Amino acid sequence: MTTDQYVITANELRRSYAGGFEAVSGISFSVARGEIFALLGTNGAGKTSTVELLEGLAAPTAGRVRVLGHDPYRERPAVRPRIGVMLQEGGFPSDLTVAETARMWAGCTSGARPVPEALGLVGLAERAGVRVKQLSGGERRRLDLALALLGRPEVLFLDEPTTGLDAEGRRDTWDLVRALRDSGTTVLLTTHYLEEAESLADQLAIMHRGQIVTTGTPATVTASRPARIRFLLPDGVPAGRLPLGLHAGADGQRIEIRTHQLQESLEELLRWARESQIPLEGLDARSASLEEAFLEIAQTETAGA
Ligand SMILES: Nc1ncnc2c1ncn2[C@@H]1O[C@H](COP(=O)(O)OP(=O)(O)OP(=O)(O)O)[C@@H](O)[C@H]1O
Protein backbone atom coordinates (compact mmCIF):
# COMPACT_ATOMS: atom_id res chain seq x y z
CA MET A 1 0.00 0.00 0.00
CA THR A 2 1.41 3.42 -0.92
CA THR A 3 1.45 6.19 1.64
CA ASP A 4 -1.30 8.19 -0.12
CA GLN A 5 -3.72 5.33 0.45
CA TYR A 6 -3.45 6.12 4.12
CA VAL A 7 -5.99 8.70 5.10
CA ILE A 8 -4.57 9.12 8.59
CA THR A 9 -0.94 8.72 9.57
CA ALA A 10 0.57 9.35 12.96
CA ASN A 11 4.34 9.18 13.40
CA GLU A 12 5.94 9.24 16.83
CA LEU A 13 3.16 11.47 18.13
CA ARG A 14 3.60 13.00 21.56
CA ARG A 15 1.34 15.25 23.58
CA SER A 16 2.18 16.83 26.90
CA TYR A 17 -0.15 18.99 28.97
CA ALA A 18 0.74 22.10 30.91
CA GLY A 19 2.62 20.89 33.94
CA GLY A 20 4.59 18.44 31.84
CA PHE A 21 2.39 15.33 32.02
CA GLU A 22 2.85 13.33 28.82
CA ALA A 23 -0.49 11.75 27.84
CA VAL A 24 0.66 10.48 24.41
CA SER A 25 4.17 9.06 24.36
CA GLY A 26 5.40 8.51 20.81
CA ILE A 27 2.70 6.54 19.00
CA SER A 28 2.62 5.62 15.32
CA PHE A 29 -0.16 4.12 13.23
CA SER A 30 -1.84 4.45 9.85
CA VAL A 31 -5.44 4.17 8.74
CA ALA A 32 -6.18 3.18 5.13
CA ARG A 33 -9.01 4.67 3.10
CA GLY A 34 -12.32 2.90 3.65
CA GLU A 35 -11.16 1.21 6.84
CA ILE A 36 -12.69 1.17 10.32
CA PHE A 37 -9.87 1.68 12.81
CA ALA A 38 -10.64 1.30 16.52
CA LEU A 39 -8.52 3.01 19.14
CA LEU A 40 -8.98 1.18 22.41
CA GLY A 41 -7.41 1.56 25.80
CA THR A 42 -7.69 1.58 29.53
CA ASN A 43 -9.12 4.70 31.23
CA GLY A 44 -6.73 7.57 30.87
CA ALA A 45 -4.67 5.70 28.25
CA GLY A 46 -4.54 8.74 25.98
CA LYS A 47 -7.21 7.98 23.38
CA THR A 48 -9.01 11.33 23.58
CA SER A 49 -5.68 13.16 23.69
CA THR A 50 -4.71 11.34 20.49
CA VAL A 51 -8.01 11.82 18.68
CA GLU A 52 -7.92 15.55 19.41
CA LEU A 53 -4.57 15.70 17.61
CA LEU A 54 -6.07 13.89 14.61
CA GLU A 55 -9.07 16.23 14.58
CA GLY A 56 -6.78 19.26 14.62
CA LEU A 57 -8.04 20.53 17.97
CA ALA A 58 -4.50 20.64 19.34
CA ALA A 59 -0.97 20.49 18.00
CA PRO A 60 1.31 17.61 18.99
CA THR A 61 4.24 18.37 21.27
CA ALA A 62 6.36 16.27 18.93
CA GLY A 63 5.88 13.94 15.98
CA ARG A 64 3.79 14.28 12.89
CA VAL A 65 0.15 13.74 12.04
CA ARG A 66 -1.48 13.85 8.62
CA VAL A 67 -5.17 13.59 7.80
CA LEU A 68 -6.08 13.47 4.10
CA GLY A 69 -2.53 14.57 3.39
CA HIS A 70 -2.68 17.70 5.54
CA ASP A 71 -1.56 18.79 8.96
CA PRO A 72 -4.99 18.90 10.69
CA TYR A 73 -3.96 21.66 13.11
CA ARG A 74 -2.04 24.02 10.84
CA GLU A 75 -4.15 23.34 7.76
CA ARG A 76 -7.48 23.09 9.53
CA PRO A 77 -9.49 24.90 6.81
CA ALA A 78 -8.39 22.24 4.30
CA VAL A 79 -9.22 19.32 6.57
CA ARG A 80 -12.27 20.40 8.58
CA PRO A 81 -14.86 20.33 5.72
CA ARG A 82 -13.81 16.78 4.85
CA ILE A 83 -14.12 15.24 8.29
CA GLY A 84 -17.10 14.52 10.54
CA VAL A 85 -16.75 14.51 14.28
CA MET A 86 -19.19 12.83 16.61
CA LEU A 87 -18.57 14.27 20.02
CA GLN A 88 -19.33 12.54 23.31
CA GLU A 89 -21.61 15.40 24.36
CA GLY A 90 -23.14 17.35 21.49
CA GLY A 91 -24.02 20.27 23.77
CA PHE A 92 -26.65 21.83 21.48
CA PRO A 93 -29.51 23.97 22.77
CA SER A 94 -32.07 21.55 24.16
CA ASP A 95 -35.10 23.75 23.44
CA LEU A 96 -34.69 23.28 19.68
CA THR A 97 -36.29 20.35 17.92
CA VAL A 98 -34.25 17.62 16.29
CA ALA A 99 -34.88 19.05 12.80
CA GLU A 100 -34.11 22.64 13.90
CA THR A 101 -30.86 21.48 15.44
CA ALA A 102 -29.88 19.62 12.30
CA ARG A 103 -30.84 22.59 10.08
CA MET A 104 -28.75 24.92 12.25
CA TRP A 105 -25.83 22.54 11.92
CA ALA A 106 -26.37 22.14 8.18
CA GLY A 107 -26.22 25.93 7.85
CA CYS A 108 -22.60 25.82 9.02
CA THR A 109 -21.71 22.85 6.78
CA SER A 110 -20.76 23.21 3.13
CA GLY A 111 -22.46 20.72 0.77
CA ALA A 112 -24.63 19.36 3.58
CA ARG A 113 -26.95 16.43 3.01
CA PRO A 114 -30.65 17.23 3.24
CA VAL A 115 -31.66 17.14 6.91
CA PRO A 116 -34.34 14.43 6.41
CA GLU A 117 -31.71 12.21 4.79
CA ALA A 118 -29.29 12.62 7.70
CA LEU A 119 -32.04 11.95 10.26
CA GLY A 120 -33.24 8.96 8.23
CA LEU A 121 -29.76 7.43 8.25
CA VAL A 122 -29.78 7.25 12.04
CA GLY A 123 -33.45 6.30 12.42
CA LEU A 124 -34.57 9.67 13.80
CA ALA A 125 -36.85 10.76 10.93
CA GLU A 126 -39.96 10.27 13.02
CA ARG A 127 -38.50 12.26 15.91
CA ALA A 128 -37.76 15.34 13.76
CA GLY A 129 -40.32 17.51 15.57
CA VAL A 130 -39.34 16.48 19.10
CA ARG A 131 -37.35 18.85 21.32
CA VAL A 132 -33.81 17.70 21.98
CA LYS A 133 -34.39 17.81 25.74
CA GLN A 134 -37.16 15.24 25.33
CA LEU A 135 -34.93 12.71 23.57
CA SER A 136 -33.66 9.63 25.36
CA GLY A 137 -29.90 9.31 25.90
CA GLY A 138 -29.69 6.85 23.01
CA GLU A 139 -31.62 9.17 20.68
CA ARG A 140 -29.26 12.00 21.55
CA ARG A 141 -26.32 9.82 20.56
CA ARG A 142 -28.04 9.16 17.24
CA LEU A 143 -28.59 12.88 16.75
CA ASP A 144 -24.87 13.44 17.44
CA LEU A 145 -24.16 10.90 14.70
CA ALA A 146 -26.59 12.50 12.25
CA LEU A 147 -24.85 15.87 12.75
CA ALA A 148 -21.45 14.27 12.13
CA LEU A 149 -22.80 12.81 8.89
CA LEU A 150 -24.34 16.02 7.56
CA GLY A 151 -21.25 17.06 5.60
CA ARG A 152 -20.82 13.62 3.91
CA PRO A 153 -17.41 13.29 5.56
CA GLU A 154 -14.57 11.32 4.01
CA VAL A 155 -13.24 10.64 7.49
CA LEU A 156 -15.59 10.10 10.39
CA PHE A 157 -14.43 10.30 14.02
CA LEU A 158 -16.72 8.39 16.34
CA ASP A 159 -16.13 8.81 20.05
CA GLU A 160 -18.10 6.18 22.01
CA PRO A 161 -20.88 6.16 19.39
CA THR A 162 -23.19 3.66 21.08
CA THR A 163 -23.04 4.72 24.71
CA GLY A 164 -26.60 4.73 26.06
CA LEU A 165 -28.05 2.82 23.11
CA ASP A 166 -30.05 -0.35 23.68
CA ALA A 167 -29.05 -3.58 21.94
CA GLU A 168 -31.15 -2.86 18.86
CA GLY A 169 -29.92 0.74 18.57
CA ARG A 170 -26.36 -0.50 18.88
CA ARG A 171 -26.82 -3.05 16.08
CA ASP A 172 -28.44 -0.38 13.88
CA THR A 173 -25.49 1.95 14.46
CA TRP A 174 -23.05 -0.85 13.67
CA ASP A 175 -24.89 -1.58 10.41
CA LEU A 176 -24.80 2.11 9.50
CA VAL A 177 -21.08 2.41 10.28
CA ARG A 178 -20.38 -0.67 8.14
CA ALA A 179 -22.48 0.75 5.30
CA LEU A 180 -20.56 4.05 5.50
CA ARG A 181 -17.28 2.14 5.42
CA ASP A 182 -18.48 0.10 2.44
CA SER A 183 -19.25 3.31 0.58
CA GLY A 184 -15.66 4.51 1.13
CA THR A 185 -15.81 6.48 4.39
CA THR A 186 -12.82 6.02 6.67
CA VAL A 187 -13.85 5.65 10.30
CA LEU A 188 -11.80 6.22 13.42
CA LEU A 189 -13.65 4.79 16.38
CA THR A 190 -12.98 4.94 20.08
CA THR A 191 -15.07 2.68 22.25
CA HIS A 192 -15.11 1.02 25.62
CA TYR A 193 -17.23 -1.81 24.21
CA LEU A 194 -14.75 -4.43 23.09
CA GLU A 195 -17.50 -6.43 21.41
CA GLU A 196 -18.15 -3.33 19.30
CA ALA A 197 -14.52 -3.12 18.24
CA GLU A 198 -14.39 -6.85 17.57
CA SER A 199 -17.45 -6.66 15.40
CA LEU A 200 -16.66 -3.44 13.52
CA ALA A 201 -12.95 -2.82 13.32
CA ASP A 202 -10.80 -3.78 10.36
CA GLN A 203 -7.74 -2.73 12.36
CA LEU A 204 -7.31 -1.72 15.97
CA ALA A 205 -4.73 -0.42 18.38
CA ILE A 206 -4.80 -0.83 22.14
CA MET A 207 -3.29 2.03 24.13
CA HIS A 208 -2.03 1.94 27.68
CA ARG A 209 -0.35 4.82 29.49
CA GLY A 210 0.23 6.86 26.36
CA GLN A 211 1.62 4.05 24.24
CA ILE A 212 0.27 1.56 21.73
CA VAL A 213 0.88 -1.85 23.24
CA THR A 214 -0.84 -3.98 20.57
CA THR A 215 -2.07 -3.39 17.06
CA GLY A 216 -3.51 -5.53 14.26
CA THR A 217 -6.81 -6.97 13.11
CA PRO A 218 -9.18 -8.21 15.83
CA ALA A 219 -8.27 -11.75 14.72
CA THR A 220 -4.50 -11.26 14.96
CA VAL A 221 -4.75 -9.46 18.31
CA THR A 222 -6.72 -12.34 19.80
CA ALA A 223 -4.82 -15.12 18.00
CA SER A 224 -1.82 -14.85 20.30
CA ARG A 225 -4.02 -15.34 23.39
CA PRO A 226 -4.95 -18.81 24.66
CA ALA A 227 -8.38 -20.26 24.00
CA ARG A 228 -10.24 -21.76 26.93
CA ILE A 229 -12.30 -24.86 27.63
CA ARG A 230 -14.60 -24.98 30.65
CA PHE A 231 -16.71 -27.74 32.14
CA LEU A 232 -17.83 -29.28 35.40
CA LEU A 233 -16.42 -32.63 36.49
CA PRO A 234 -18.85 -34.95 38.29
CA ASP A 235 -18.42 -35.17 42.08
CA GLY A 236 -15.88 -37.81 43.03
CA VAL A 237 -13.77 -37.34 39.87
CA PRO A 238 -10.61 -35.47 40.91
CA ALA A 239 -9.10 -32.93 38.50
CA GLY A 240 -5.88 -34.96 38.74
CA ARG A 241 -7.49 -37.65 36.57
CA LEU A 242 -7.56 -35.35 33.55
CA PRO A 243 -5.10 -36.26 30.76
CA LEU A 244 -1.59 -35.06 31.61
CA GLY A 245 -1.25 -32.93 28.47
CA LEU A 246 -4.07 -30.62 29.56
CA HIS A 247 -3.02 -27.85 31.90
CA ALA A 248 -6.17 -27.36 33.89
CA GLY A 249 -7.02 -24.90 36.58
CA ALA A 250 -9.61 -26.23 39.02
CA ASP A 251 -11.98 -24.50 41.37
CA GLY A 252 -13.57 -27.50 43.06
CA GLN A 253 -15.22 -29.43 40.22
CA ARG A 254 -15.18 -26.37 37.93
CA ILE A 255 -12.36 -26.88 35.43
CA GLU A 256 -10.77 -24.34 33.09
CA ILE A 257 -8.18 -25.36 30.52
CA ARG A 258 -6.17 -22.70 28.68
CA THR A 259 -4.65 -23.80 25.42
CA HIS A 260 -3.04 -22.49 22.26
CA GLN A 261 -4.18 -25.66 20.42
CA LEU A 262 -7.91 -25.60 20.93
CA GLN A 263 -8.77 -28.37 18.49
CA GLU A 264 -6.10 -30.80 19.71
CA SER A 265 -6.86 -30.15 23.38
CA LEU A 266 -10.57 -30.58 22.81
CA GLU A 267 -10.02 -33.84 20.93
CA GLU A 268 -7.81 -35.12 23.75
CA LEU A 269 -10.36 -34.13 26.37
CA LEU A 270 -13.32 -35.66 24.54
CA ARG A 271 -11.44 -38.93 23.89
CA TRP A 272 -10.54 -39.16 27.57
CA ALA A 273 -14.12 -38.40 28.65
CA ARG A 274 -15.54 -41.03 26.30
CA GLU A 275 -13.04 -43.70 27.31
CA SER A 276 -13.51 -42.93 31.02
CA GLN A 277 -17.29 -42.53 30.56
CA ILE A 278 -17.22 -39.20 32.36
CA PRO A 279 -19.83 -36.60 31.38
CA LEU A 280 -18.52 -33.06 31.03
CA GLU A 281 -21.38 -30.89 32.16
CA GLY A 282 -21.68 -27.36 30.73
CA LEU A 283 -18.84 -27.97 28.27
CA ASP A 284 -17.85 -24.68 26.65
CA ALA A 285 -14.88 -24.14 24.33
CA ARG A 286 -14.03 -20.81 22.75
CA SER A 287 -11.21 -18.82 21.19
CA ALA A 288 -9.98 -15.80 23.11
CA SER A 289 -12.24 -12.77 22.77
CA LEU A 290 -10.93 -9.27 22.31
CA GLU A 291 -12.16 -8.57 25.82
CA GLU A 292 -9.93 -11.30 27.25
CA ALA A 293 -6.98 -10.08 25.20
CA PHE A 294 -7.60 -6.54 26.40
CA LEU A 295 -7.88 -7.49 30.06
CA GLU A 296 -4.74 -9.58 29.84
CA ILE A 297 -2.84 -6.72 28.23
CA ALA A 298 -4.10 -4.20 30.79
CA GLN A 299 -3.20 -6.46 33.72
CA THR A 300 0.21 -7.44 32.36
CA GLU A 301 1.13 -3.88 31.51
CA THR A 302 -0.04 -2.58 34.87
CA ALA A 303 1.79 -5.32 36.75
CA GLY A 304 4.95 -4.64 34.74
CA ALA A 305 4.72 -0.86 35.08
N1 LIG B 1 -6.16 19.09 29.92
C1 LIG B 1 -5.45 18.19 30.58
N2 LIG B 1 -4.47 18.56 31.42
C2 LIG B 1 -3.72 17.65 32.09
N3 LIG B 1 -3.87 16.32 31.96
C3 LIG B 1 -4.83 15.88 31.13
C4 LIG B 1 -5.67 16.80 30.40
N4 LIG B 1 -6.53 16.06 29.65
C5 LIG B 1 -6.26 14.76 29.91
N5 LIG B 1 -5.24 14.66 30.79
C6 LIG B 1 -4.64 13.41 31.29
O1 LIG B 1 -4.09 12.71 30.20
C7 LIG B 1 -4.29 11.30 30.36
C8 LIG B 1 -4.98 10.76 29.14
O2 LIG B 1 -6.29 11.27 29.09
P1 LIG B 1 -7.28 10.93 27.88
O3 LIG B 1 -8.55 11.66 28.17
O4 LIG B 1 -6.60 11.20 26.60
O5 LIG B 1 -7.46 9.36 28.06
P2 LIG B 1 -8.56 8.39 27.46
O6 LIG B 1 -7.82 7.20 26.97
O7 LIG B 1 -9.41 9.11 26.48
O8 LIG B 1 -9.39 8.02 28.76
P3 LIG B 1 -10.90 7.55 29.00
O9 LIG B 1 -11.03 6.17 28.41
O10 LIG B 1 -10.97 7.50 30.49
O11 LIG B 1 -11.80 8.56 28.36
C9 LIG B 1 -5.05 11.12 31.65
O12 LIG B 1 -4.14 10.80 32.67
C10 LIG B 1 -5.67 12.49 31.88
O13 LIG B 1 -5.84 12.72 33.26
Automatic annotation (TrEMBL):
What does the record say about its membrane topology?
A: Peripheral membrane protein
All copies of domain ABC transporter, residue ranges:
8-234
Entry keyword Transport: yes
Q: Which Pfam families does this UniProt record tie to the protein?
A: ABC_tran (PF00005)
Q: Which SUPFAM superfamilies match?
A: P-loop containing nucleoside triphosphate hydrolases
What is its subcellular localisation?
A: Cell membrane
Give any GO molecular function from the UniProt entry.
ATP binding
Q: Which UniProt keywords apply?
A: Antibiotic resistance, ATP-binding, Nucleotide-binding, Transport
Q: Is Transferase a UniProt keyword of this protein?
A: no
Q: Per its record, how is this protein called by name?
A: ABC transporter ATP-binding protein
Species this protein is from: Streptomyces albipurpureus
